[in-house]
Amino acid sequence: MNQSTVTDIKQVFREADAKRAPLHLIHKNFLGRNIDLYIGNKQAASDPELLSQHGIGTVFNCAVNLDINLVTTQDPLSKVLPFGWSPVRYYKLGIVDGPGNPHPMMLAGYYQLRSLIDQELPNKPSYPWKETGNILINCRGGRSRSVTLTALLLHLDEAETYPSLEDAIAHIREARQLIKEEWPEAPKQVLVDAAHWAAEQVKRLQPYLPKEKV
């Protein structure tokens, strides 16, 4: 592939990104818990008003090269840089968009994303969020890392609807309006390979997980 072709492809990607909404609804009523899953980009994850409009109470950022300051209530102990509380529960996983991630990072991402839904927060002022709300999974563009991780979640936990990882990816590509020219990069195959490996490990580990208290 020559440089001219690469430049043309990147221009197609830029134009598609410009036309695409910052976030899209991917799956309604996850696990029958009245939680909707969204995928979005950096603009969506950094827009509290947009998050509120969609009932999003939890943001899961899976991009290592994207830091977002969502703090709206600053802790009085802040000195050099502000820290405190944001209007949403905010989680971070640092995945590289391409080669470089050990496969267990995708496995860890699945368990982190899946577990935040079951996580019970203490009734303390330093935990101001009462509900999970809907969930936004984001990366920089909402095209690759977030697509892969969400597809893994849907395949493993909504298997009747998404019996294979590819079924979940195909659904997300349509819901997120990823044009066919983007598919080789949305999501990147190296991430899909890691997700396949992670899915196998989750299925092997399932019988050995501790029973949750009821």
UniProtKB/TrEMBL annotation:
InterPro entries: Prot-tyrosine_phosphatase-like (IPR029021), Tyr_Pase_dom (IPR000387). CDD domains: DSP. It comes from Marinomonas posidonica (strain CECT 7376 / NCIMB 14433 / IVIA-Po-181). Residues 111-176 form the Tyrosine specific protein phosphatases domain. This is Inositol monophosphatase. Coiled coil: none annotated.
